[in-house]
């Protein structure tokens, strides 16, 4: 990866901010109130936020692995896994351990071993439901580096395209043979892989087309095209078409994957001030930077906020949304500065080797 490719891009933090806000609104705002008032099954907003996170993760992880492929598989895997452990495990295990101490973590092995999403798929219940997506990401992080680095660079784009179509075929088969479980399949890796692999494919294409005349176009057009591709989808939902069909049908799932990947790709490359502006404002970029902690702690913040208001100030219970946001912002900021950042600094002990030419 080039030096420029290694630089932190605050616009991606901005995209994380909007993604985590979609999830927060979904969990905080009463379903019945929104649906009755507007007739829109807004639960997809939360799912869209998670899908954006997956597309971003696939894009960035692939850029890291593909860009720093030194040819030494063992060394590259060790560096990648150690850096991922330092980023994910400290906060996640601290969160789990505190809940275990307070007796709020049934079946702790499922959480600690990143298999809770399977339980959520089978039972669709249990505390800390927000952990399912972290489990899926860790499963992806375990498998994807082996797959990508084990494939010669010249074959990687074709390999990712093949996997994308294979998981789509699997999703089609699953939807048609297990209709009662189709909705819950969104908690499993094959469903989520549409967005993870879609993002990874965009990263591989970016690395192999950077600087070439064929791909010198306005990248805000690429971002806008991806965003506009989602508009018909929201229009159909708003007009009460078959929501489950629109959400889970494999062909539409592939379409959404490509739309979100185009948005991430375009936002990564663009230098357009008007497109960057809503993503690089300091409050937006800051919330995106701490979005991991915000995501993990926002449900706990909601429970705490409504508990305190119900007990001490029931007359202003409607303010629980705002109080929970303040709690989540406070907790995730403390986590960022006093837990996550010290461990992130340890990544310096595991530097990536210089990449070989592709």
Per DSSP, the total helix count is 17
**Which percent bin holds the helix content?**
over 70%
Q: Averaging pLDDT over every residue, what do you get?
A: 88
Quickly give the structural class: mainly alpha
E-strand count: 0
Radius of gyration of CA atoms, rounded to a whole number: 20 Å
Strand percentage lies at under 5%
SSE arrangement, N to C: HHHHHHHHHHHHHHHHH
- Shape annotation: globular
Instruction: Give the low-pLDDT segments.
Output: 1-5
Distance between the termini: 10 Å
As for the number of domains, it is 1
Largest β sheet strand count, sense and barrel closure: none
Write a structural description.
This protein has 358 residues and is mainly alpha-helical. The protein has one domain (3-349). The chain has helices at residues 3-6, 10-28, 31-38, 43-67, 73-101, 108-112, 116-123, 131-149, 156-177, 189-209, 219-238, 243-248, 250-269, 273-280, 282-289, 291-312, 320-345. Helix 11 packs antiparallel against helix 13 (250-269). The chain starts with a helix and ends in a 13-residue tail after the last helix. Residues 1-5 have low confidence and may be disordered.
